[in-house]
Amino acid sequence: MISSRTLTNSVLCLIAAFLAFGLVFPLAAILVKSVQNTEGMFAGLDNFRRFADTPGLAGAARNSFVTSAISTVITVTLAFAYAYGVMRTRMPARALFSGIAMIPILAPSLLPGISLIYLFGKQGILKDVLMGHSVYGPIGIVMGQVTFAFPHAVLILSTALAAADQRLYEAAISLRATPARIFRTVTLPGCRYGLTSAALSVFTISFTDFGVPSVIGGNYPVLSTQIYLQVVGRYDFQMGAVTAIFLLLPTILSFVVQQIVQRRNDGLVSSGAIPLRVVRRPALDTALFLLCTAVAIFLLAILGTAGFASLVKYWPYNLSLSFNSYQFSRMPGGGWSVYFNSWILATATASIGTVMIFLGAYLIEKGEGNAGLRAAMNLVCMLPLAVPGVVLGLSYIFFFNNPMNPLVGLYSTMGILVLSSVIYFYTVPHIMSLTALKHLSREFEATGASLKVPFYVTFLRVTLPCCLPTIINIWGYLFVNAMTTVAAVIFLYSARTQVAAITIVNWNTGGALAPSAAMSTVLLITSASVWLLRAWVSSRLARRMQAWKEPVT
């Protein structure tokens, strides 16, 4: 009979091997490629010097920093005001505003760029608003990245603003502090970690985004598109590897800074805290209601324009309704089959990823395995958050497309797309799993062990039902992200495994904007439908399988 400790260590080793082959070894391969010449010999730092001496690549690095910094300032400022209105005021329609802010998460990152072309492009109905400036380039990139990163910032800042101690505000009022001083000395310090996390997250999302620059970047180079150009356009794999490292360094730095800030964060809400009572302030409520309304209209306009434009005959001259743009079978690249490939990718990623991630988190948090192995596993599970999708995809080329690798047969199959997607989106579901598991007392496992019940029985009969809503949320998160991802699969698809998000990139590059908008709309509707179904299933299962939480009457 195998002991629980041996079985736990064995399963942990299997998951560790999965992470090693899916993350660690491919990243090592990209580091090796960056210091090799075209013959595979060691070249030292020659490739890095060539990168610095190439004006286009050095300029792309500067452009990435500039657009990401501008996007971060705009996004965090708007998101803080928006989240403050939702969480700290009595303005009407707060739940509606909260829901609207999350819609961009359900859309491919390409969709904002496509809508901006319809609105501000050469035939855009609002092109005069730019006063002669082109939307193709830094203006369009910043607008698209703000739209795409906005919900992530709102989520983080809403969480930060949700927790506050009423006693601090009462003390400030008793000292006759002005509202501005209270905001500066109480509210902002309480949100310090949230603001830092939001800024670092938005900067990382903007710096590594491939979708928006690929659609609306024009001749304005950034690092994420330069990787694609170096590898696909010029077959310069060494320079692609160096570009990937320069794209990877800021994200790793942001990740490290965020971890340091998290460890130094001292909560302002103690165990004896009194929840904040939000009072009505007519002037502030009205001002933030108007701001939230303007932001919500902008988000809906950005996302809705592409959908509407895909339903008309010829934007903006003939606005009569037509479904011609949805006749994908007439387009090159697979027609509706690429959409069904997206379904296969999303379903497989969600199903395999949910089992793998939750089981790994359970063994790390509750298992009896080796403590050092569990700590190392937890560290590796956090790393995908710092790896851009295009970097991960490029690393897979170097690692899996190697005749010496026994896993070379995985290359150009749906399996490698699923693997890259699971790894790319691994960290957030891992954190969700740990959070849910930390709410369960270790007494469950201790009681099961005292009764000589195997740990997997306790897991299946106790832990799983208690965490089922979280598991459903993880499945939905992985499905939606895999359905709309571009960066994680842009280097790895073949003619048989091409997915809808990649087809949108190819159609847009070929000038087929209306079909691109149509397919983007289909993906948005699909993601929204699955997300709503997830919410319904999660609530039903929570009521049926977690009835033990209800008080006895």
Automatic annotation (TrEMBL):
Q: What protein is this chain from? A: Putative 2-aminoethylphosphonate ABC transporter permease subunit
Q: Gene Ontology terms, cellular component aspect?
A: plasma membrane
Q: Which domain of life is it from?
A: Bacteria
Query: Any idea which UniProt keywords this protein has?
Result: Membrane, Transmembrane, Transmembrane helix, Transport
Q: What span is annotated as the signal peptide, if there is one? A: none
User: How would you describe this protein's topology in the membrane?
Assistant: Multi-pass membrane protein
Report whether Transport shows up as a keyword of the record: yes
Positions of the ABC transmembrane type-1 domain: 61-258, 339-534
Homology family:
Belongs to the binding-protein-dependent transport system permease family.
List the InterPro entries hit by this protein, alphabetically: AminoethylPonate_ABC_perm-1 (IPR017664), MetI-like (IPR000515), MetI-like_sf (IPR035906)
Record's subcellular location: Cell membrane
* GO terms, biological process: transmembrane transport
Transmembrane region(s): 12-32, 65-84, 96-121, 141-164, 193-217, 237-257, 287-316, 336-364, 376-398, 410-428, 474-493, 513-537
Q: A Pfam family matched by this chain, by name?
A: BPD_transp_1
Q: What is the lineage of its organism?
A: Bacteria, Pseudomonadati, Pseudomonadota, Alphaproteobacteria, Hyphomicrobiales
Record carries keyword Membrane: yes
